[in-house]
Structures are given as structure tokens and as C-alpha cells.
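Instructor's aside before we start: the two examples that follow are unrelated to each other. I chose them only because their records fit on one page, so don't look for a connection. First example below.
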Amino acid sequence: MENYSKARTSEQPSVCPFPGLTPDTPEVRVKDGSKIRNLLRYALSRMEAKSRAAEETGCPVPEEGGVAVEGQQEAPVQPLCKQIIFTASGKGVSKAITCAEIVKRRVKGLHQLTRLLYSTVVEVWEPLEPAAGLDSLTVNRNLPAIWILLSREPTDCGQPGYQAPGRYDALWVQSANREEGGGIPAQRPGHRRKRGGGGGEGSSGGRGRGKSPGRKTGRSRDAAK
């Protein structure tokens, strides 16, 4: 590809994997260059009453950072949404997961449904020297994509990728209790010290015992001489 240069790149739109959603469900598209604070400002304004009240009193709207939502201009006069979608592909997947987790911590009782897909990116490469007789190339790349649905209303628990509200909070509490207790981690250094001390005493005792017979035999030989 040293004789080609990338002319343009386009991502084919993917179909939402969550059927039956209401038309006013906001869809937050996260990109690699998106700012998390702007994404969260918009998402919380549609899901949280406090953030929405602050927005109506004069807080700035989210800046351009990969957010595309249906009916975004009518959002201040609409009621709070019951569902919201975070979607991303490629390098933006980690940011989408971060945004979803923060929203779940701020808005309690949200049901999560996750779908992993692939999005197609079309790249067009043009030859550096058209007179060389080289043709343009079209490359299709498949990028991993994620769709996260957060819903106030319960969804089908049997679907793959479903997470109940508060599931990870319980795990965080258990891990925090283990760290605060610290019984097992604190005993490990002590056990190592005991083992090390026992080994040292045994080795030193072994060395002393090994040397003492040699010294006695040496002294006995001198006395015999």
C-alpha cells in the first residue's frame, strides 16, 4: 500500500438491535474523540430530574462530540425518557461502556441490555501516481460495535446480555468488605516470614552442625599429634 493514499472513509449505518422502542428514545453515538462530560450532560438531562431542571434554568447544551439524538431540539419540552441507548464502534466502545456505568450509578434501578455487533467501514484508496496504471482500491473493514440499552422499565430477563439493577453494586460491596477486612492478605506476609525464619534456622543449624564435627575432628587430630 506504499503506492496508495487513503482518499475517504465512510461508516455504514447499523440497524438498532432493540426492536419495539418508542420513537422518542434518545440514541447517544459515542466516538473516539467524544468528551465524556458532554455525553453525560445530555444523557442525564434526559434521564435525571435534577440535571434536567438545571438544563432548563440555563445550563449549556452538549457540544458536538459524537452525539446524535432524534428530536434533540425538542428535548427541553419533553418528559423524562424511560430508555436511552449508547452505541459506539472501534475505539469508542470503552467510552460508551464508561458512560453507561456512570449513568447507572447516578440513576438507580436501570435495567441494562447489551448487544455486541460489527459495523462495516469502507475505505477508498487512490494511487499516488495515476499515470502508473494503478486502479483505486475499496477496502471493507469490520469493527466491533456495542449497543447498550438502559431502561427504567424491566425487560426480558432471559435475553442474552441482560443485567439486573444493582447487580454490580453488590459485587463492589463484597470486594470492599474483603479489602477492609484484610484478614487473609495480612496473614500471607506473616506466613512467609515464618517459613523464611524456619528455613533460616534450619539452614543455620545445619551449617553449625556441619562445622562442629569438622572442628572437633581437627582438634582431636592436633591433640593426637
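Example two begins here.
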Amino acid sequence: HASSLRDSRHKTHFQSLTMASRLILSRLAQRAAVPRLTGAAAASFSSESTIVPGVGLGKTSTGLVGLKVDHEAIPKMITKYQALLDRMANSDMPEDAFYRTTMEKVIRYRIKAAQDNPNDPEAVEALCNCGQVEELVVQADDEMEVLEMYLAGRYWERVKDVDIDVLHDIQYNPDPADDHGEDEEWGDTPDQQAK
């Protein structure tokens, strides 16, 4: 009887600690400093009054050392990627240079993703599939450095077009069991031939 009384006291004590812990955690969560934007910055994000921890305005960490959360990343993306397009347009790099045509496609896609989803960084990240919006801003900065190097070295002049002879008679076989024809005999292995 004494042990069951002691067990029930421990259980009650544990339950009260658990309830107290929940209460403390909920109060801490309510008091937690969540970065809040004002003015135009706040208007560019959702008009909902509820901030979800870890999402949108509730995001407090990128999870990457040295890369801070930037709630203005989407407008920065648009500005920086447009600067890349402008720099290429104002350069003497030919419009048909492979680097330029490739980068213009990527850049225009990212700008469109950002413009179509100005209040949804997660959607921009999913569409671009190259990291968080903060990383996409860093990538734009890095690409500007590469572009300046490419322009200074005039690397498009060093790349020569290559004609590649494409085999047109290759056919796709959707049945991997039929890759080698009808029961072909492959002969002995080198080990068997040596005997």
C-alpha cells in the first residue's frame, strides 16, 4: 500500500511538473522576440496577423553558419538579378555567347519566380530549387563576380564551337530484360578461357 501511495505521489508530482513545464514554455513562446517588419516591408509579406515560427516572417534562422535571415531577400533577388541582366546587356559580350544565353535563362526564371511570389519565400525556394532565398541573393552576388571576370577575360572569344556527330540510330529500349537480344551466348569468361 505504501509503495502504491508513493507511486501515485510521484505520478502526480511528475504530472504537475509536466503541466508547469508546458505553461512556462507557452509563456516563453508568447514572449519570444519575433522579428517584425513595418511599413512597406510588412505590406510586402502576408497581411495575416499570425506569424508561424520558422516560416516567412517567423523564420529566425537559415540553419547555415554565417548566413542570417533576410526578410527582404525577395526584393533584393529581383534587384541583383536584374543588375546581372543589365550588366550583360551593356557589355560587349555577344548575345549568342553560351554563358550569356544560359545565364539569361536562369536569371529571368529566378526574377519571375520572385515577382510571382513576393510574399512567399518558400514558393520562390521551391521554384528555383537552389537553396533558401538568402542563398539566392548570395548566388546573385557571386554570379556578378564571375560575370565581371568573364567580361574582363573576354572568355567567349576563347571558346570555340564544336560540331558533335550525333548517332541518330540509337533506340530506347524500355525493357531492360531485352537489352541483349534473344538468349545470346557470350562465351567463356577470361578465367574459363585460360583453363
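The CA atoms of residues 56 and 121 lie 7 Å apart.
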